[in-house]
Design goal:
The protein is built from 13 helices and eight strands. It has a six-stranded parallel β-sheet, sandwiched between helices. Strands 6-7 form a two-stranded antiparallel sheet. By secondary structure, the chain is α/β, with parallel strands linked by helices. The two termini are 16 Å apart. The chain is globular, with a radius of gyration of 20 Å. The longest helix has 27 residues.
Length: 376
């Protein structure tokens, strides 16, 4: 798919250095769990392994066999399902009492985020084994903390990225396809956002200006998604591994992680915060970000041809490309204005390289919805 987005143009100021951050070691491939002992053993000889029941069940046979072969001890502790201060405190106390040398988080975003905080509390390394590819949480220096009612509470930032990220793509392929598609939606947003931040010279989560490497990682995301996204989705729906899944997962986890932390976030992700803060819960993070990417494209004055092309891609992938797809009535102008105001106040919208304000975001939301509704 040719989106005609053009080449990256460096318009940044040089008053601050670029900063690029990475996970310590990223391992990916079909059946890579068989090598878990070799890689996780580097972190320590006694591990606290935590994850949800389903996630743990999908990996524990191969994982524990590999650890046993290498003489590594472990304690298995179920994750409660919500990344709260209470759950983090419980797991931290277990780690202290058992003399744990490293933490391993298994599953999706919340279990992974909890494992990262626990390891930080204990000042020990952390390994991540994602069982879905729905977010770039596995590689990032950020955890999202929720309250006891499942509402967003705050973010926790870490001094470094996870030490080990081990991705068995055979496990990813067997997860429900909605997770893979949500990861594609989130990566799609970063594809456009990192380019916007590179042009504006925005300060990123990494603590400096966007690097050329991060911007190019984000550019690769688009090349991969538009070429292999549909085949990866079909493979996942069938529950079988394919080279397409391999490429898409690497883009959604590794390139997207580098892209958002060291390349920067802009309007697409801020639309998700507007959605979430207005009580939206039905759609996954990456699903809403996909619609946010369309809103950003409108605000950037990209061509109708390019925007329609991405609308068709989202339609084909079953990603939101209209307001109704994220549960917002296009006739409810007040809600759209509230969503846009929150998106603007959230902060990353200001990383755009063009003028942004709540009124312009509202107009872009309505125009993106119009183009989506008229996509055939």
């Amino acid at each position: 798919m040719n989106t005609n987005s053009g080449s990256l143009k460096n318009e940044m100021a040089y008053d601050l250095p670029t900063v690029t951050i990475f996970p310590g070691k990223y391992i990916q491939g079909p059946g890579s769990l068989k090598e878990a002992g070799n890689f996780l053993g580097i972190l320590g000889d006694k591990l606290l392994i935590t994850g949800g029941k389903r996630a743990m069940a999908s990996v524990e046979t191969k994982l524990f066999e590999s650890l046993k072969e290498k003489g590594i001890q472990w304690i298995k502790e179920a994750f409660c399902g919500e990344c709260t201060e209470k759950e983090i405190g419980r797991l931290t106390e277990i780690g202290k009492a058992e003399g744990i040398k490293a933490v391993v988080g298994i599953g999706g975003g919340k279990a992974i985020d909890a494992a990262k905080v626990v390891a930080s509390n204990l000042h020990i390394p952390v390994g991540i084994i994602p069982t879905v590819a729905s977010t770039d949480a596995p590689t990032s220096t950020v955890s999202v903390i929720y309250d006891e009612w499942g509402e967003f509470s705050h973010y926790v930032r870490f001094k470094r990225n996870p030490d080990i990220v081990l991705v068995d793509t055979e496990i990813i392929a067997k997860a429900p396809s909605r997770y893979l598609v949500a990861g594609i939606g989130g990566a799609l947003g970063i594809y456009y956002e990192a380019e916007a931040c590179y042009k504006s010279g925005a300060i990123t989560i990494a603590g400096g200006r966007p690097s050329l490497l991060a911007a190019q990682c984000a550019k690769i995301i688009g090349d991969v998604l538009f070429t292999y996204g549909r085949m990866a989705k079909v493979s996942c729906e069938m529950g079988i591994w394919s080279p397409a899944i391999e490429k898409v997962v690497e883009s959604s986890l590794l390139f997207s992680g580098i892209g958002f932390e060291s390349g920067g976030l802009a309007l697409a992700h801020s639309i998700y915060h507007g959605y979430r803060n207005l009580g939206g819960k039905d759609k996954m993070h990456g699903e809403v970000v996909a619609f946010g990417a369309l809103v950003q494209m409108v605000l950037e004055s990209r061509s109708e041809e390019e925007i329609t092309c991405i609308c068709k891609f989202c339609k084909d992938m079953k990603l939101p490309y209209r307001l109704e797809d994220i549960g917002v009535d296009r006739q409810n102008i007040q809600k759209i204005n509230e969503l846009s105001k929150i998106a603007w106040e959230q902060g990353t919208a200001l990383n755009m390289h063009c003028d942004v304000n709540p009124d312009k975001i509202s107009a872009a939301v309505l125009l993106a919805d119009y183009l989506g509704r008229n996509t055939t």
